[in-house]
């Protein structure tokens, strides 16, 4: 079975986010890019499926700062083919344009299963998985926490609020938006990544031009204005604890 | 504004999900007296679900294969609807149903899509949207282009009650949809094992987030919860680690809670979590980061380390109880 | 120009050879503070190897109880490097299989990504010195030379409790007129605990990065806040071709006692007991310098705990232990650090003095969980010295 994993890099939220001077996007100089956590989950799910039933895992990621590490780490986890998509991904990009740029890989590689993260926090034009599924005229299931594949069909556990799971079956080829893998992503020791750097090859492909239609431009990017803010309690731990007890009593819960 | 606003009604196992009512309230506010609010309901023998919808009309599609949501079926049905009738706006939940429905329709029909939207406001003839990005750390604003626009929305300023009506709207059955050749099907719906306490019924909740750091600290928080006669709840990272069962998850994929007091320990306040706190009477937040978004929602807060505070607070609560 | 170092790198030990000389006395397993919790304490791992059933060792996860305190290595009559040769090697095997407890995994991944196990931005590594910029010189930005390069370390830089001790040390160096500077945000984790947790590759990657940064500057000596960085720089970096003279800050200050003593005027009026950090004491044989500093404090009565010097009890933070507390608690319902606190209390100390950044938060937690907050305070030596000055 051939699984294609679509990876996005997102701004690292551990670092400070700074708005560019034009006020509509992040300052790219100060933005540090890391793999989208949900895409890391998608990769783990792909590797788990390969371990269970054989097959091939292909990973595609857009060329951005840190993408080589991401690809070699994917190889160290068990990815077979690594593709780096060359293009401008820090300028005008949205999930619609990215879906269009990823689409040729579906037609060329003809994967049985396409996995990607259910969402990414840096875009406001919908879920990549749903967009690319519609483009490729493939079925899509999002918010998937657990996948099994047998006989050309995938069974996906779709998460609903309150812990309810809808178990769904879909004929392959299909696109799944991963919320969490069957088991948490494995650890990859540096020595394995370094080994992958020596043995694995990253294939490069040129991305088509960016077609942003379907997305809507941002006219302003701002830090949220607190419409209200908590009254902050001061003092040492004892004093704060006492104030809290008073608050609990006032609320009628103590 | 003139024209129509459509709202996709989300439902599961015979219940309309709260987000649908919230969207109806938003639609109503935008529509004012000029535009029509139409609820779009796809289901099977589901007319009863329309009972409380605060809409002018319901377009109802009935088909056995629509009993439970599949993106594929919804795309087929709604593509036809949107191509034929070109509403100004269609609202979807930023949810496990709405997100993929809107995405597929946007790409298929070439319609603009704005996701993670908190609110839409009218500014003269223009519709202005505000969305959350970067786990709530930033807000993006823009204008919706002319023509039909699709928006997926988070629960925001509106409460479900505002989207409910005592008078059920007029139901207009739609022509049958052609759902042959679907490649997706529903096998079964699995309820979570229900032995645990229902946190949505509790008056007080002590909730822990990433700031609790390690599993062994859960017990500290547990002691406080017990002293307040309640149980522990948590945000996604805590549940994903297996430190609390899924039944205690507060958030988008967990439960929405409405206690009198919600004590948030080491929780930053990411949108997926706070959207479940819309009906909480009072939030008290403890987080070492003074910029944590939770402080914008909380009534009281302190920037001490929850781990340091817990033993002290537990003791003071016991003392206050006369224990 | 850095003086080329005169010390030699320790010889690489051929563990496999050494293992043959194990006499199965069991001293290692019995002195191990957590040996009783392991399915395979050290001597049992050796017998498993001999019986060719090592895979059974790998099917257990109890090796993660090991905190690399090196008591086993110190006591072995055949001088087998038990800690690194057996315990760390077993951890390494588990890591290769991707089988590692979640907390430790996060710490290792954070170290990979951010150069520190706490998952903090490298750009915030110098936040601890806010307000002290005039007293803590930074290398880089035009400045490339100093006498003493102070390697600050992860917990000393980022942990809120430990930052107070770091600031105290900065103040002391300043008061003594030491010509020093720090690497600032260019500093990477020493990675020594990560190495002992099985990630040799990560350790080497960090060493290469630190080595490149150190090469840019001219200095005569490195001093470290923490014993783990000291151990890395002294004993491991030379193997990788990175060789600099290095001291722990207690050694450095003890050499300057003559200048320090007159400044220590405020009487402490307390009974202090000193906890020998594993990587300062037992592993690197530095016992006197910290004690000399404490003895210089006016009206400070020093008492020793039963486990002192080479017999010191680990705080539980080494070898990955810092990131395995949940694992340890879940499985054993004990905390090593509590044992130590009870000892400190039993000898009538009001202050537990430490010299390692892992210890201040670990022992303070244990003071709380053993209910001894009224009787016992935990302080780094740098804090105690500064208290005696101000």
Give a verbal description of the structure.
Chain A contains six helices and 13 strands. With 254 residues, chain A is of the alpha/beta class. Chain A has one domain (2-206): 3-Layer(aba) Sandwich (Rossmann fold). Chain A has a nine-stranded mixed β-sheet, sandwiched between helices. Chain A has a two-stranded antiparallel sheet with strand order 2-3. The longest helix of chain A has 17 residues, at 37-53. Chain A starts with a strand and ends with a helix. By secondary structure, chain B is of the alpha/beta class. Chain B has two domains: 3-173, HUPs (Rossmann fold), CATH 3.40.50; 199-320, TPP-binding domain (Rossmann fold), CATH 3.40.50. Chain B has helices at 18-31, 71-84, 98-109, 218-227, 236-240, 271-274, 306-320, and strands at residues 3-8, 11-12, 15-16, 35-43, 57-62, 89-93, 113-123, 126-133, 138-143, 149-153, 170-173, 184-190, 204-208, 232-234, 261-265, 282-286, 300-302. In chain B, strand 13, helix 4 (218-227) and strand 14 (232-234) form a beta-alpha-beta unit. Chain C is of the alpha/beta class and 390 residues long. Chain C folds into three domains: 15-96, Fumarate Reductase Iron-sulfur Protein, Chain B, domain 2 (Orthogonal Bundle), CATH 1.10.1060.10; 102-254, Rossmann fold (3-Layer(aba) Sandwich), CATH 3.40.50; 264-389, Rossmann fold. Chain C has helices at residues 15-19, 27-31, 42-50, 54-59, 71-75, 82-96, 102-114, 154-158, 160-175, 192-196, 200-215, 227-236, 249-255, 257-260, 288-295, 325-332, 336-346, 359-369, 381-389, and strands at residues 148-151, 180-182, 221-224, 246-248, 270-274, 300-303, 351-354, 377-380. In chain C, the strands form two sheets. In chain C, strands 2-1-3-4 form a four-stranded parallel β-sheet. In chain C, strand 3 (221-224), helix 12 and strand 4 form a beta-alpha-beta unit. Mean pLDDT of chain C is 93; it is low at 1-13. The interface between A and B is large, with 82 and 98 residues.
